[in-house]
Amino acid sequence: MYFAPPILSCEETQTLELAWFGGDETREWKAMQLAGRAVADSLLTDFREIGVFPNNGRVLVLVGKGHNAGDALIAAMRLYELHPKARIEVLFVFGERSLRPLAQRAWRDLAPVAGTMRANQPLAGSYDVVIDGVFGYQFRPPLSSAVASVFAQVNALTVGLRAAVDLPSGLDAPDAFQADFTYATGIVKTPLLTLPNAGRIRYLDLGFFNDSAPVRAEPKSNTMGNTAERVLTPDVLTPLRQLRPSNSDKRSYGHLFIVGGSRAYPGAVLMSVLAALRSGVGLVTAFVPESLVQAFAARAPEAMWVGWPETPEGGLALEGSHLLHQKLSRATALLIGPGLDRERETLALAKDIIAQSPVPLVIDADALQHDIVAVGDAARILTPHAGEYARITTALTPTMVVIQKGPITRVRSGTTTYHSFYGGPVLARGGSGDLLAGLTGGLLAQTPTDLTGAATRGAVWHGMSADALAQANGQCAVNVTQWLDFLPRVLRV
To answer: How does pLDDT run across 46-55, given as a tens digit for each residue?
Structure first.
């Protein structure tokens, strides 16, 4: 069974770390090594979205006193090991003598290959990377004027990638560190979910919640089992990476029906079909306006295309209902909404289909209307963006699973919210939601009784594939459908 690590408050984190490490510096040093090296490796992976990290790259490390300082120094050492010509500059915000023992140990390793700067020394020029290791989760505001001055200067520099360790120093103070990425080491702390200066969040799983992990000690608290906020990891995709039974056939992997499309938005439903075909589902049948069938069948012959009578404006007409109902017994899941448009007749059709559906549903796009999502008894996954979520909020019930799209994708299931930190600005394009809907529909058709599993796998697979696309081709000059070709890459790591 998949375990999603908890997201904890700073106070809960402190309680757990005291229980795990108990002041044992041997354990703490091992965890610090894991954290620092993971920060560097993840940072270099994320840097690919803007290019290749230069061999002689310039790195500025902002160092405080404690564990975050040690993590940042170890990360810098890891960067130097991988790029021996890199120029490492360390700025001790509180002075070198303020370092606590483990941070001092990390500095002794880095010192022979790094230069140092004073906190009152003016900063100038450009850096490829800045690593913020000034304050950890025990920081309490306000920022002193001296530290705020340092961050103000750093924030004004030209920097390729700004990385914060665990939390951006200063939290949300006016002159706090402005991160492009925040690397949450071991535990995601709740402030990260709302900080405007955290940038994109990366969870670095150090094995704290894995009984076999080298840094794991038996906790004396059950805090980690009580949280309703969870973080999704790549492990949720494990079922998709396994060998399939040798005696299986196409019917073993479900049959997804997709209802959508209009002359106004023809591409949306096609993208959903293309994504569904990559989900591993056995069969896909798409019901679309009859004028679109010929072109769509040529683009995706693997799907079965059913032409639907059209309204004068080019939407799905009520008179076509029999086409779906006479075949619906063959489906294991139904996706409705992509490209549907908002004609009154078409929305009435969508409401009727959802009210009568005997199979679990994914409801997307224009079908996400308050009076539509509330009808019927079939289990359902909803896939709203912020605007759609606002208009259906009062219709939501605890039995619905909701994939709430945004900079952080949240899967809400019952009393638990699962957070996916994958994806990024590369998904800020029309069509990315249609791809997610098709992918999720295909996954639901394979496991029609496991809505939460289908939704969480869909969210993570969607986001990780987008990350892979951006790391290969950058964020700007791509088409959203290029994402399709990165789906298999994510499963084969």
So the answer is: 999 999 999 9
